[in-house]
Design brief:
This protein is of the alpha/beta class. The protein folds into 2 domains: 141 residues, Rossmann fold; 152 residues, Response regulator (Rossmann fold). The protein has 12 helices and 13 strands. The strands form 2 sheets. Strands 1-3-2-4-5-6-12 form a 7-stranded mixed beta sheet, sandwiched between helices. Alpha-L-arabinofuranose binds next to α2 and β10. Alpha-L-arabinofuranose (AHR) binds next to α2 and β10.
Length: 330
């Protein structure tokens, strides 16, 4: 499959950025005295409920596996992730894992890790690189499939989604972070699923950066600029929840006057789905920690691992959300 990207941005000092699960930020030689593994994990940020759940899963799983985890939050900035990875290389960690904020621009730093003989695992998001020898494996969702599931459900439920009943379904799309794999792939999958359906059209599409605030602001703009919006397709729950706030502030009823389809299925999104404000959610599973630690152990032990590990996911209707909401972990 095609590998993916990156972008750039501002800076925070690395000392403020790099935290460690074990409360220490000191250098560690490869292989701890007790034989445990040191992992450097460069997280995207804390932009969404999904990300918070993913961070918790990684931190808890590292502790359970007995790993020393050096964790950094890049605040959605590629340059911060690159600095964190360079710091992990300097600290001679045993394995580096990261979720690339954008798809392109990683080759140089990944070459540095390779020269230092530190294996890299991609988790959640892919990089766009011709050189697949720069990482051992990629663990995460099939984002194109997620977009397809959203589009297919819309087409199957076209009658209900045509809110004004005029035979044309106007969709506005709230995109994830520009250049990020889930934003590019969900847009691609959704577009391919609605392609053959002449009545469905994406009339406006803009990034909300995967945040609630971003989704709200972009939705406010769409409500001012677009006439006859039937459906919002938000690339994650948080932007969909922001859109709900904007729709309600405009005196409209989400789920009735404007239908909303999202991706993730975090607890807040599922509550809005069960309440009828969201119509359909495609699940994206953030609980990648246990599989990540398992893969990291194998990689450090020199065992073969699959090139690609795809996360298993489902979808939720309003009725299904109501059934599982109370037991939703995140
Ligand atoms: O990469 C996964 C995506 O990133 C999630 O869908 C979104 O909520 C998060 O910010």
């Amino acid at each position: 499959m095609a590998k993916k990207t990156l972008v750039a941005a501002s800076a925070i000092t690395l000392s403020a950025m790099v935290l460690t699960a074990c409360g220490s930020d000191s250098d560690s030689a490869s292989g701890n005295d007790d034989g445990s593994i040191t992992m450097g994990f460069a997280q995207v940020g804390a932009e969404s409920g999904w990300r918070t759940a993913n961070t918790k899963s990684v931190q808890e799983s590292a502790e359970e596996a007995g790993f020393e985890l050096k964790f950094s939050d890049a605040q959605q900035k590629q340059e911060n992730q690159i600095k964190a990875i360079r710091s992990y290389i300097q600290q001679k960690v045993d394995v580096i894992a990261f979720s690339p904020v954008v798809e392109t621009g990683w080759d140089a730093v990944l070459q540095e890790a390779k020269r230092a003989k530190i294996p890299v695992i991609l988790t959640d998001r892919a990089v766009d690189s011709e050189d697949t020898s720069l990482y051992e494996t990629f663990l995460g969702s099939d984002f194109i499939l997620e977009g397809e599931k959203a589009g297919e459900w819309l087409v199957e439920n076209a009658g209900e989604m045509d809110v004004d009943g005029n035979g044309a379904i106007n969709v506005v799309q709230l995109e994830g972070t520009t250049g990020a794999a889930p934003a590019l792939d969900r847009a691609e999958g959704f577009a391919s699923a609605i392609e053959a359906e002449d009545t469905v059209e994406v009339v406006a599409s803009q990034t909300g950066d995967f945040t609630r605030d971003g989704g709200k602001k972009v939705m406010e703009t769409f409500l001012g600029s677009e006439k006859g919006i039937d459906v919002v397709f938000a690339h994650n729950d948080d932007m969909g929840l922001g859109a709900i706030e904007a729709i309600e502030a405009a005196g409209l009823e989400p789920g009735k006057d404007i239908k909303i389809i999202t991706v993730d299925a975090v607890k807040d999104g599922m509550a809005a789905l069960a309440e009828g404000k969201i119509s359909f959610i495609v699940e994206c599973n953030p609980l990648l920690g246990p599989q990540l630690m398992d893969l990291a152990q194998k990689v450090v032990d020199g065992e073969d691992v699959p090139e690609r590990v795809v996360t298993e996911e489902t979808t939720f209707t309003q009725e299904q959300a109501a059934e599982v909401l109370a037991d939703r972990q995140y």
